[in-house]
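User: Quick sanity check before I run a bigger batch. Here is a single chain. Can you write out its predicted 3D structure?
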Amino acid sequence: MERTITVSDTLYRALQREATRRQYTPDALAEEVLTQELLPQHPHVECVTGSGGSRAVIRGTRVGVDVIVGYTRAGYAPETISAELLPQLSQAQVYDALSYAHDHPEALAALEEHSAGAWQARLQARLDPAAYARLTGTSPDA
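Assistant: Done. Predicted structure follows.
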């Protein structure tokens, strides 16, 4: 369905100049610019706010982007995630979540904060070496 947008003469001339420079038609350039600015870059991901704060999830589900990233870090392929681990998700949703994670590394801060390595570091900082060794089953000298 085609729609008409009215712009000022000045804006249209600027659009024509840029379209000529890029070897586009003015309509094609306007379509590209409006698509980039108005459509979501990650159509399958939304941010929801809950009691624990904001979290990126697959739109219409409770599956977090961090969960999908966690599975890939554990060695699962995106195809396996959508086919076997989270069959309610399509491959497009899984790949979009991974793309979102790449574009928004700050969204994965909680994942890093709760990793096993981070917990071990916190324990080691709070406990004396003997207590840490008893708790983790390691040598106090390690």
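The mean pLDDT is 87.

User: Great, the batch can go ahead then.
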